[in-house]
Amino acid sequence: METDLIGLIAAAIRRERERAGVSMSELAKRAGIAKSTLSQLESGSGNPSVETLWAIGAALGVPFSRLVDPPRPQVRVVRAGEGPVMHSEQATYSATLLASCPPNARRDVYRIDSQPGESRISDPHMPGTVEHVVLGSGRALVGPVDEPVELLPGDYVSYAGDAKHIFTALEPNTTATMVVEHV
């Protein structure tokens, strides 16, 4: 992960923790991570996985994007291969934040790149979260863990993000666009 992204994440975690008025120990407990891990992340010496950042965001009651999105200019172009990328520890899966929700909006946009193998199983996000996925290439099983839907390029699915859900690439170089809608 890029050094400037790690610094941005460190500052964002510290800012959001202080805004929430919780101690490092309390946040680590709520997120289910070691206090030493949180300390490393806040100091900029850690390299967080997407699962760790989702857990911290959920524990703070903030969208994942608030922890990884740099300040944005008036016009923003994210070229293929650019943007803050978070990698899964569970699967060959990465999520690139393309756009986070501006103040008073409630959505984030991600580009997903995934390979066949282990499924990316996501724990429930904040209550009321809805995910929208449009498959760009390949083939994938996407949706609630107990009833995922097979998608082909151009197919769309929407499902509750506040319940356990899955993304499984069925073909090499599977890509998708995901919009996470926060209530």
TrEMBL record:
Coiled coil: none annotated. It comes from the Bacteria. CDD domains: HTH_XRE. SMART domains: HTH_XRE. Keywords: DNA-binding. Pfam families: HTH_3. InterPro entries: Cro/C1-type_HTH, Lambda_DNA-bd_dom_sf, RmlC-like_jellyroll, RmlC_Cupin_sf, TransReg_Diox_bact_type. Gene3D superfamilies: Jelly Rolls, lambda repressor-like DNA-binding domains. Residues 13-67 form the HTH cro/C1-type domain. The keyword DNA-binding applies. The keyword DNA-binding applies. Transmembrane segments: none annotated. PANTHER family: HTH-TYPE TRANSCRIPTIONAL REGULATOR (PTHR46797), METHYLPHOSPHONATE SYNTHASE (PTHR46797:SF1). This is XRE family transcriptional regulator. It comes from Kitasatospora terrestris. The lineage of its organism: Bacteria, Bacillati, Actinomycetota, Actinomycetes, Kitasatosporales.
